[in-house]
Amino acid sequence: MTPDLLDEGARRVSAFAQKHQAGRTESGGREAGFGRLSMGQEVDTTHGRILYLEDVSVSFDGFKAINRLSLDIAPGELRCIIGPNGAGKTTMMDIITGKTRPDSGTVFFGSTIDLLRYTEPQIAQMGIGRKFQKPTVFEQLTVFENLELALKTDKGVRSSMFFRLDSGHSDRLAEVLETIQLSDGMTRLAGNLSHGQKQWLEIGMLLMQDPKLLLLDEPVAGMTDEETARTAELFLTLKGRHSLMVVEHDMSFIRAISEIVTVLSEGSVLAQGTLDQVQNDERVIEVYLGR
Ligand SMILES: Nc1ncnc2c1ncn2[C@@H]1O[C@H](COP(=O)(O)OP(=O)(O)OP(=O)(O)O)[C@@H](O)[C@H]1O
């Protein structure tokens, strides 16, 4: 990175810090919430569902990875998805985000947006954010710059460096920094963060884009116990303001955050209920022990 870019970055961070130092609230301003949608479409959740899949199937070379899958998620819900390896969890997220087209079935965002009519970037713009297992932050940029860049994903890195935050963006950035507990580390290079902090930063980058629905694939894999506990706290603060779908194998984490747990097996819903209910379900015990 050139010195002029570094100077420019430092100047912006300093101006930002001065503006927001006094403005920190106990809740980090979280009461303001998120929720903007683009694409000129509002998500209609009046029927009590933000995501709705019905009878969805997809095959790869004759193998049914998703088999007549039906499930729905309520606005503000934090839904945990578990299931043995190969159950179809990632493929289900690929279908929701437009990465994979199902052979049949229905996938709706709210009650009016047919997601199967949109491309992957359009679905992201509509407010469905996805976090893959591995963190993909820009290691050579600071925490602040990563978050700032997330506001302007349509621009190149250099033009984004000179992008000026308006006060709405600036407030959101401060709010997100508080939410992901990186306010004090905003000038650190992302490459120097711990694994857990990188994961939180990437979640923060998604939050900058005002997602209605967040899909998170194995968010605590590789985290320390302390990082896992902090991630549970983070998800509980996001619940209500966003809808979350969390795929995870770590049962202690699921226990800390879950209300309803959906168990996938062989591409379908095998069981659904509280973690205790599904863990005591004979069919669930069988698919886990059978492997
Ligand atoms: N593009 C593809 N081509 C062929 N087979 C695929 C493809 N994507 C997924 N599959 C198969 O579909 C099945 C479901 O895979 P998927 O990755 O969705 O499972 P998962 O529940 O996410 O597993 P894990 O917990 O191991 O991540 C697996 O048998 C996988 O091998």
UniProtKB/TrEMBL annotation:
Keyword Signal: no
Entry-linked InterPro entries: ABC_AA/LPS_Transport (IPR051120), ABC_transporter-like_ATP-bd (IPR003439), ABC_transptr_urea_ATP-bd_UrtD (IPR017781), BCA_ABC_TP_C (IPR032823), P-loop_NTPase (IPR027417)
Domain ABC transporter residue range list: 51-291
GO MF annotation, one: ATP binding
SUPFAM superfamilies cross-referenced by the UniProt entry: P-loop containing nucleoside triphosphate hydrolases
Alphabetic keyword roster: ATP-binding, Nucleotide-binding, Transport
Top-level taxon: Bacteria
Alphabetical list of PROSITE patterns matching this protein: ABC_TRANSPORTER_2 (PS50893)
Gene3D superfamilies registered for this protein in UniProt: P-loop containing nucleotide triphosphate hydrolases (3.40.50.300)
Alphabetized PANTHER family for the sequence: CONSERVED COMPONENT OF ABC TRANSPORTER FOR NATURAL AMINO ACIDS-RELATED, HIGH-AFFINITY BRANCHED-CHAIN AMINO ACID TRANSPORT ATP-BINDING PROTEIN
Name this protein carries in UniProt: Urea ABC transporter ATP-binding protein UrtD
Organism: Caenimonas terrae
